Amino acid sequence: MKLQGIFIPIAVPFDHNGDLYPVKIQHNIEKWNRTGVSGYVVCGSESALLSSAEKIRMWQMAMQYAAPEKLPIAATGAPSVHETVELTCEASKMGYKAVFLTHFNAFYVRSVADRAPVPVLSDVDVAHPNVFRLPVATDLAAAFAGGATAAIAEVANAIPYTAISIWEAHRTREQDAAADWQNRMARAVELTRGNPAALKHAMDLNGYYGGPPRLPMVGLTPDAKREIEAAFDGLKG
């Protein structure tokens, strides 16, 4: 499987009751479709907050709204290998050509890959003919300089054009430009890494729908919001 460019691990839109917000899912994906991102990892970092039924619903909507040239990847990880394989088979039936597993050890990934009907992508190195590496990168410039041809970039939910600029600079061998873009978004990456509320606020600032985080995640203080606003000022959404 040949992977290139930037993949967005979709931040899940919730309404103020904590339910999936279909119209905003459509809004975000259709807006991202107009960028140069290569595809989407559906139910990425917030998958632990979703039931299996909600994951399947998200995968269905993403398949419906993603542009044909964008590669949709289903994040199917669950606590057990058995459930992960079941979810992987469901995603395959919907048309997903690959699934993604993160935060699992090599034995777990190999066990899923043995049973999966589609390729398994992972952010850990696993020696298996059905497993391919797709790193989750905060330092995109370093990841590409180190040999990666594709990367998952959480911050690209809010500023896809900035993330794409790093990939394009690498692709055209303009390493200084890639490093410059990376430095410009370093504070934004730091503030949003592993912080769904911060990432969602940044999305709201840039014309995407972030909305509220799902409990038990909590919203931001006014000071934290101002810090996010300063960090993302001037970055391309």
Describe the structure.
The protein is of the alpha/beta class. The chain has one domain (5-75, 135-232): Aldolase class I (TIM Barrel). It has helices at 22-33, 52-65, 81-94, 106-115, 140-145, 160-171, 175-184, 186-192, 196-205, 222-232, and strands spanning 5-9, 39-42, 71-75, 99-101, 120-122, 131-133, 150-152. Strands 6-5-4-3-2-1-7 form a 7-stranded parallel beta sheet. Helix 1 (22-33) links the parallel strand 1 and strand 2 (39-42). Helix 2 (52-65) runs parallel beside helix 3, helix 3 crosses helix 4 and helix 6 (160-171) packs antiparallel against helix 7.
> How many individual domains?
1
Widest beta sheet: strand line-up: 6-5-4-3-2-1-7
* Major sheet size, sense and barrel closure: 7 strands, parallel
Into which percentage range does the β-strand content fall? 5-15%
Instruction: State Rg.
Output: 17 Å
How far the N terminus sits from the C terminus, by CA atoms, comes to 29 Å
SSE-based structural type: alpha/beta
Helix content: 40-55%
List keywords for this structure.
237 residues, TIM Barrel, 45% helix
Briefly characterize the structure.
By secondary structure, this protein is an alpha/beta fold.
